[in-house]
Structure formats: C-alpha cells, structure tokens
Fold:
Amino acid sequence: MDSCGIKPRDFSKPFEEYRKSARVASSILAEEIEEKGSITWDRVLQAADGDGLVYKLTLKYLRLNGYDIGNNSQPFVKKH
Structure:
C-alpha cells in the first residue's frame, strides 16, 4: 500500500470539512463494499484523495457503521 501523500494540508479549512469529506467517502465506499464484499486500504486512500486525515476519518466512520477495517496483515475493509 502506498503511504499517504505529502500533499500540503490547508489548515485554514475547518475540521468539519474534513469530517464531511470523510462521511461522503465512507458512504461511497460502503456501497462498493456491499457490491464487492471487500475493498483494499488503497481504495480507501484513493477515495480520500491522498489526504491522511480524511483517510483515517473514513476508516473510523466505516468501523462505526459496522465494517471490519482489518489490520496490517489483512489490509481490507469488509462486511462484519
């Protein structure tokens, strides 16, 4: 898996905007998980547009919605 990009983060953006981006990404990814059964962490990073904060929040929201977000030996998000 590629690491999160070195993309400079615009800290003038409120935290709520990062949360909103993560919620949108998690809802899109939830649909993909329902269709395919699982997705990779790379796909989550791609949906987060390489932003580390949005990536982590997206995984958090997926976990809160009942998905198994895996671990370092199983980097997949799947239905619980």
In short: Helices lie at 15-36, 41-47, 52-64. The CA atoms of residues 25 and 47 lie 6 Å apart.
